[in-house]
Design brief:
CATH superfamily of the largest domain: Type I PLP-dependent aspartate aminotransferase-like (Major domain)
Shape: globular
Number of domains: 3
Bound molecules: pyridoxal-5'-phosphate
Number of helices: 18
Strand content: 5-15%
CATH topology of the largest domain: Aspartate Aminotransferase, domain 2
Radius of gyration: 25 Å
Length: 473
């Protein structure tokens, strides 16, 4: 037996690099990332010794050393003297990552739409900041005042990334904002006068409800079905009153998971054109290109705004978002920004966008989409038989409760069992009656097993006899 055959027989992990076009060490890291994401390599699993893998793959030991070092930098593995290189275990980062979702008392928080905790986030952002700090001219650039829309360089980089994701747009059409919520508020504040009406699906993002209320706008609830807003209902409301702007989440309604088909989108555009509505599409719950329909800004560019944010892809704490707007609305939006705080800090914009556009971020985002899909599958299994509406890329699922359960009782009894979920109330526009439903977020736990634990407790609860907390009357 030759050396390679012997080495191959002893390697428990043998990546196939033949088809890879990138440098060998890079191809090896990409394969490693893919196998970790797919679960072929488990957390804590030891990688083959460097010399053995080099012989098995017929490459130099230097190539393997470089690949393992790069994988460590990307947060995929950790190397310890005496115990080799192992797939990074999430548990080793427990103090930082578990506090949100799985407290030491065993409680599981499934109430928030946050990115899945992963040590790669810390590693990757640290790398970006280090690169920025050492790049000639980069620090100089962030010290300067920028145009209200944000720096040309950052907007070009973001427009390029979005275009690559199948969302073609130019730097001139973009305003950088301090997160998606700010883009929401900015659009309402600059384009709708106090006392005027805006409309949204009857169940919608609480941040939009809060912004409209804060700005003294009338908020009209449009009846919805499994595809979201009903065009006929919107038409009727427009005939009864002047509505200035319609807020939409066509890909993945927060909270109901409703997704709008193409015919529905076109019907809404027709109503908008007949009644001169502005369309504000919130794309913060970003989904993969294959699953995305035509954004409204492509169907009706003259009246549509689009909101993007890095909050669900990279991290909410970065507070970096963007608003795409038609040219005729730009002056009003930038005037409002100038009056508020001039422009988004370029330090944050350049760091967040550099991270977003990196190959590291692609690994992270691809992993997250695979993990979200696996978690949605797990939820469907654990709550099998219940009425669930969810999206394969969605951070949450919407569970319509079986008779005679009421949402307040489920939320309270889940909390007694250490599981936090929220009912429909915060998502209801105005005094609309809340459906008996709960939103379950699958992303807060760092480990899938914690989600499983929370879902199992919820499923057991729903199998019990409903008990109401009766007030003394
Ligand atoms: C639909 C929607 N829009 C906006 C936001 C706020 O995004 P950001 O954290 O970027 O402000 C969220 C956050 O959950 C959201 O779900």
């Amino acid at each position: 037996m030759d050396i390679q055959t012997k080495a191959r027989a002893r390697c428990h992990w043998l990546p196939d690099l033949d088809a890879a076009a990138s440098p060998r060490y890079q191809a090896l890291v990409d394969r490693l990332a893919a196998d970790i994401a797919a679960g072929t390599l488990a957390p804590g699993e030891r990688l083959p010794p460097q010399r053995l893998l080099a012989d098995a793959l017929k490459v130099t030991v230097g190539t393997i050393t470089r690949a393992y070092r790069e994988a460590e930098r990307r947060g995929l593995v950790e190397a310890k003297v005496g115990s080799g290189t192992r797939v990074r275990s999430l548990a080793s980062d427990a103090p930082v990552f578990h506090h949100l979702s799985h407290a030491p008392d065993g409680s599981v928080d499934l109430s928030l739409n946050v990115p899945i905790p992963h040590p790669m986030r810390v590693q990757q952002l640290s790398g970006v900041l280090e690169r920025l700090a050492h790049r000639p001219g980069a620090i100089d650039a962030v010290l300067a005042y920028q145009p209200e829309q944000g720096s040309q360089a950052s907007r070009e980089a973001l427009a390029g990334w979005l275009t690559g994701q199948g969302m073609p747009m130019t730097a001139d059409e973009l305003i950088l904002t301090s997160g998606g919520q700010h883009a929401d508020y900015l659009a309402l504040q600059a384009l709708v006068q106090p006392g005027e009406a805006v409309a949204s699906a009857a169940l919608t993002f609480p941040g939009m409800i809060a912004a409209a209320r804060q700005l003294g706008l009338k908020h009209v609830a449009v009846p919805m079905d499994a595809e979201g807003i009903l065009p006929e209902a919107l038409e009727r409301l427009c005939l009864q009153q002047k509505i200035r702007l319609l807020y939409l989440m066509p890909e993945h309604n927060n909270p109901t998971g409703a997704r709008m088909g193409e015919t529905r989108r076109k019907a809404i555009v027709e109503v908008a054109r007949r009644h001169d509505l502005l369309l504000l599409e919130d794309g913060v719950q970003f989904v993969t290109a294959e699953r995305r329909g035509t954004p409204f800004y492509r169907l009706a560019p003259e009246r549509s705004l689009y909101i993007f944010s890095v909050s669900k892809l990279l991290a909410g704490g970065l507070r970096l978002g963007a608003l795409r707007a038609p040219a005729n609305l730009m002056a009003r939006l930038t005037a409002s920004l100038r009056a508020q705080y001039w422009a988004v800090p370029e330090l944050m914009a350049s760091a967040a966008i550099e991270w977003l556009a990196s190959t590291d971020a692609k690994t992270l985002i691809d992993w997250q989409w695979q993990e979200v899909a696996a978690r949605q599958q797990l939820l469907a299994e654990r709550l099998n038989g219940h009425q669930i509406s969810a999206h394969p890329c969605g951070f949450h699922a919407w569970l319509t409760l079986p008779e005679p359960w009421r949402a307040v009782d489920v939320v309270a009894r889940a909390a007694e069992r250490g599981v936090t979920v929220i009912g429909a109330d915060p998502f209801c526009v105005g005094s609309q009656p809340a459906p008996q439903a709960i939103r379950i977020c699958v992303t807060p736990p760092a480990e899938r097993a914690q989600l499983d634990d929370g879902l199992t407790r919820l499923a057991a609860l729903l199998d019990e006899e409903p008990r109401r907390v009766s007030p003394l009357v």
